Amino acid sequence: MDWIIIRAIASLEFRIHTRSRWTLLFGLVFAALSLGIAYFGMITAGLVGFQNFTRTSASLLNLVIYLVPLMSLTMGALSFTTEHGAVELLFAQPVERNEILLGKVGGLFASVAVATCFGFGAAGIVISLNSDGGGMAGYAALVALTLLLAFVFLALGTMVAVIARTRTRAFGYALFTWFFFVLFYDLLVMGIAFVLKERAANVLIFLSLFGNPADMMRVSALIALGGTTIFGAAGALLVKFLGGAVAGCVLLIAALTAWGIAPLAVAGHILKKQDI
Amino acid sequence: MMVVRLGIAAVVLVAGILEADTLSAGAGRRYHSVREAIAAAVPGDTIRIEAGTYAGNLVLDKRLTLEGVAKPVIRGDGRGSVIAVLAEGCTIRGLVIEHSGGMLVHEDSGILLHAGGNRIENNELRDVLFGVYFFGASNNILAGNTIRGRAWLDAGERGGGIHIYNATGNTILANVITDTRDGMYLQYANHSVVRGNRAYGVRYGLHYMYSDDNTFEDNSFSHNVAGAAIMYSRRIVLRRNRFVHNRGFSSFGILFQEAENCIAEENVLVGNAVAIFMEAVRGSTFRKNLIAANDNALKMFSSASGNAFEANNFIDNLSPLEVIGRSTDTRWSGLGRGNYWSDYEGYDLNADGIGDVPFKIQNVFQHLEGQYPRIGIYLYSPASQALAAAEKAFPVFEISREFDRQPLMKPVALGLTMPERPRRRGFFPLAASFAMLVTPVWLYRKGRTS
């Protein structure tokens, strides 16, 4: 693999996305919503005279969990199944398929990062104007975890696209993946946990976190923002289960990273054998 | 006969005043140690202690005033109490008192009171096991002292900052307490007044055990395991206290356990893990409190009965109520007025300030959390929000029975002075945010034009 080629493809991909309306639209929507949350979270706090940093950031987290996976999955899925044979043309060039894969994912990641950082920057200005900057470490952690989440779902979107091969199917699979991880998975686990005995239910719930990157991101971001106490008794159980708060966070982030690398490896494997 | 008796009393009093003398202790003074001065003094005398360090383990066995000039240090030898007060009517003022013994069972304190009617003010106590211990000592005044315990000990090995045992009518004013086990501990202590104190970094800021008819007002409790713990006590009145940021797995702003007929008014509970915890509390009223930005505003066992919440402001709590057990008979409104809930989404057609739709305090997720704490891990997850939304759309599964039938449309105006909003703005966060806003724009433009 040649890094120069990967960089060239990434830069090409990034330029394609800056020219498409998708990135602009997502960036503006995300910025508008996060600005709204920050404004109402921090300004209306004046009503009772205290700043509500954790609550504001947690609401931002909520926005992230809905929007960022959706954006990443669709962008990942669509960029590998372009119309008019653009991808086929790229694959016809004398470069390795893995280089194309990494380059494209790199470029995609750059565009998603640009769009989300724009929103976080706007919200961050509102927040830092209305607080003493005490919670900004938590905010920085939220931004970092959001970028990690974007990477994971870009990788998943890429994998889905490589499996689906056609644009419409890839889009459908991406939407299903989004629905599954963001909503269905948790409801399913919760439902099963209700019929299990206490101990088994605890093990199921905490193990199930590792099966859903959106959950891992949400839990580690909330720990960064409000500490494990924010989950009440469940937080204490989680810390015990993971063997300590710091160890738990490291474990969650490592698992999250693995969730980004694994789909890329799968996609690379499929792509190598695929007859394009 | 009466006149004669009064006359004698007057003569004795005047004689006492005339006799009252001021003795000076210090380097180059008549008495080199405080102990010598105490031995030489007669009741009613004042001992002025100049700056310097003096041996402690003092015993005040007559009515004396110990007054420090420029904060002299009274240092105990590490055994017993630094100053023990056995006589009534003593005053201890302006001293630094340190290095008491370390035996909990011997009440080793900075100041150990065995008698009533004393005045302890503006002292600084440090490196002490107990700060001030009232051992059956009633009607004392303790004001403006700073008490710092032994931070290096485990909480269980420390003593209380102010420990009142079996005494009534004490007044505790404007003290600052930290690094002790409980900030203020009152056991079998009725009719006490606790006002304007600050306790932080301790286990319970204020802890009542078997203590009735007590009042505490204008105190501030932060970063403790619990701000105040009211246990096995009746008729406690708490007003205008601040309970801020008491956080931990089992941390509370106020913890009630086996309490009756308490009244809580105009308190501020902000940023606690649980603002108010209630177990077996009966007939208590919560009025005009501000309960905001807590993880959990109220957590109650179904053993809490006959309590009322009226005209409180519940603002931006992650969860308004957790009931352990099926449901409570709590009254969520009084005199036709309920509480203000920032999550309320109803309307008010007749514009009387009271929402026309009852406020369902718990959504289905919060209700389930009370029964299965482990699902708390789904806090802020789309799944938990979906459950709440489904409940709203299909009200068939109505599980929780806690309703505020007269929810207020606007927050109750409270005559509170709010914690000041920070004026100092971090420059770095602002700059970082600005960079985060501008860099993407620049990259985006670069991508478009290159």
Short description:
The complex is a heterodimer of chains A (276) and B (450). With 276 residues, chain A is mostly helical. Chain A contains 11 helices and no strands.
Write the layout of secondary structure elements.
The complex is a heterodimer of chains A (276) and B (450).
Chain A: H1 3-19, H2 21-43, H3 53-79, H4 86-91, H5 97-129, H6 136-164, H7 167-195, H8 198-209, H9 213-226, H10 233-242, H11 245-273
Helix pairs in contact in A: 1-5, 2-3, 2-5, 3-5, 3-6, 3-7, 3-9, 5-6, 5-11, 6-7, 6-9, 6-11, 7-8, 9-11, 10-11
Chain B: H1 2-19, E1 22-25, H2 34-40, E2 46-49, E3 53-55, E4 58-60, E5 65-68, E6 73-75, E7 83-85, E8 91-93, E9 96-98, E10 109-113, E11 119-121, E12 124-126, E13 130-135, E14 141-143, E15 146-148, E16 162-165, E17 171-173, E18 176-178, E19 184-187, E20 193-195, E21 198-200, E22 204-209, E23 215-217, E24 220-222, E25 226-234, E26 237-239, E27 242-244, E28 252-260, E29 263-265, E30 268-270, E31 274-282, E32 285-287, E33 290-292, E34 296-301, E35 308-310, E36 313-315, E37 319-324, E38 340-341, E39 359-360, H3 364-371, H4 382-393, E40 403-404, H5 427-449
Parallel strand pairs in B: 1-2, 2-5, 3-6, 4-7, 5-8, 6-9, 7-10, 8-11, 9-12, 10-13, 11-14, 12-15, 13-16, 14-17, 15-18, 16-19, 17-20, 18-21, 19-22, 20-23, 21-24, 22-25, 23-26, 24-27, 25-28, 26-29, 27-30, 28-31, 29-32, 30-33, 31-34, 32-35, 33-36, 34-37, 36-38
Antiparallel strand pairs in B: 39-40
Give a written overview of the molecule.
The complex is a heterodimer of chains A (276) and B (450). With 276 residues, chain A is an all-alpha fold. Chain A has helices spanning 3-19, 21-43, 53-79, 86-91, 97-129, 136-164, 167-195, 198-209, 213-226, 233-242, 245-273. Chain A has one domain. In chain A, 83% of the residues lie in helices and 0% in strands. With 450 residues, chain B is α/β, with parallel strands linked by helices. In chain B, the strands form 4 sheets. Chain B has a 13-stranded parallel sheet, covered by helices on one side. In chain B, β1, α2 and β2 form a beta-alpha-beta unit. Chain B is elongated. Chain B starts with a helix and ends with a helix. The mean pLDDT of chain B is 88. The chains are: A mainly alpha (276), B alpha/beta (450). Chains A and B meet through α1, α2, α3, α5 and α6 of A and α4 and α5 of B.
